[in-house]
Design goal:
Elements: H1 24-56, E1 65-69, H2 76-83, H3 96-103, E2 109-117, E3 121-128, E4 133-137, E5 139-143, E6 149-152, E7 163-165, H4 169-174, H5 176-194, E8 204-210, E9 214-219, E10 225-229, H6 233-248, E11 254-258, E12 266-269
Parallel strand pairs: 1-3, 4-7, 7-8, 10-11
Antiparallel strand pairs: 2-3, 4-5, 5-6, 8-9, 9-10, 11-12
Length: about 280
C-alpha cells in the first residue's frame, strides 16, 4: 500500500539561527569585579570621612599661635581682635574665608587671607591701605594712591598728610569716574613732591582742585597759589625749583605763580593800591 503521508522536508543548515552560548564565567567575573570596586570605594570614602572627623575633633589641632603678616597701621593684636580667633579653638572649626571677609571690612584693610598652619597655627596675611592725602568734604577723609576715599578721620587719627580741597560730595556722586581721575592726579603730584629737594611737601600748605585750571598748590608761607594744571607735573616742578629760592624771599608780594606756560614761569606780583 502506498504511503500517503507527505515526505518530511529537511531544513538547510544555512537557515538555522544558532544561539551563542552564554559566557557565564566572564559575566560572573565582571560582576564580582564591580562589586569589589564598589566595596573598596565605600570603604575608602568611609575611612577618609572617619579620619577627617577624628582629625577635626582632635585636641592636637587646636589654635596656639596666630601670625599676622603685612600690617603696618594696625598692630598684631588689633588684627587678632578683629578676626575674633581665640586660642584653643579647633582649627578646623574656623571658616577662614568668612574671617578674611570680616577683616576686610576694616577701613585700613584692603585685602585679607587667612590660612591654617598645621597643626596648631593660623596665619593672617594683609594688604593695608596707604593714605596719601586728606580731602575736605565737609568731613575729613583719607584717600589712597588709587584715588579711593576710604576712611573718615576720627579723634586721634594722624593729620600729617597734605590737605586737598575743591571737590564736593555732589560732584563725587554726579561724576564719580572723573572725580576719581582727579584724585589720582593729586596722588601722583604728591608722590613727585615727596621726592623733591627744593620745593617739596614741607613747602606746601594745601592743594586745591580747580575744574578749569587743574591743580593749584598753595605755599606754606603766605599761601601763594602755584598753578600747575592737569599734567606734566615733573617738568613744571623742575622749572619752579630753578628759581624758587629767589622767589621765596618775594612771596609776600606775589599774587600767584603760573607754571602752565611751556618753558616759562609766570610770576604775578600783587598790585599795590595807589598812595593817597
Amino acid at each position: 500500500m502506498r504511503d500517503m503521508k507527505p515526505p518530511k522536508t529537511r531544513r538547510s543548515k544555512g537557515n538555522v539561527r544558532i544561539r551563542p552560548a552564554r559566557q557565564w564565567k566572564k559575566l560572573f567575573i565582571r560582576l564580582v569585579h564591580g562589586v569589589l570596586i564598589l566595596c573598596c570605594t565605600v570603604l575608602i570614602v568611609s575611612g577618609a570621612s572617619l579620619l577627617m572627623n577624628m582629625v577635626s575633633n582632635s585636641d592636637h589641632f587646636r589654635v596656639e599661635t596666630i601670625e599676622v603678616i603685612g600690617n603696618h597701621k594696625l598692630t598684631d593684636q588689633d588684627v587678632i581682635d578683629l578676626s575674633d580667633i581665640r586660642q584653643g579653638v579647633r582649627t578646623f572649626d574656623l571658616d577662614l574665608e568668612i574671617i578674611g571677609q570680616k577683616l576686610a571690612e576694616n577701613d585700613w584693610i584692603q585685602h585679607a587671607v587667612v590660612e591654617r598652619k598645621l597643626p596648631r597655627g593660623i596665619v593672617i596675611r594683609l594688604r593695608e591701605r596707604e593714605a596719601v592725602f586728606i580731602i575736605n568734604l565737609d568731613y575729613l577723609f583719607y584717600v589712597d594712591h588709587s584715588g579711593e576715599i576710604f576712611k573718615v578721620l576720627r579723634a586721634g587719627d594722624p593729620l600729617n598728610y597734605p590737605l586737598v580741597s575743591g571737590l564736593d560730595r555732589q560732584q563725587l556722586l554726579d561724576e564719580p569716574q572723573h572725580s576719581r581721575q582727579q584724585l589720582q592726579q593729586v596722588a601722583t603730584l604728591i608722590d613727585l613732591l615727596a621726592q623733591r629737594q627744593v620745593f617739596n611737601l614741607q613747602e606746601l600748605s594745601q592743594i586745591r582742585i580747580d575744574q578749569k585750571e587743574g591743580l593749584i598748590l598753595y605755599t606754606r608761607l603766605y599761601g601763594v597759589p602755584i598753578k600747575i594744571g592737569h599734567d606734566m607735573f615733573a617738568d613744571k616742578l623742575d622749572r619752579l625749583e630753578k628759581i624758587y629760592p629767589e622767589l621765596e624771599t618775594r612771596l609776600p608780594h606775589l599774587n600767584y605763580i603760573n607754571l602752565n606756560v611751556p618753558e616759562k614761569v609766570i610770576v604775578k606780583k600783587m598790585t599795590l593800591p595807589p598812595a593817597s
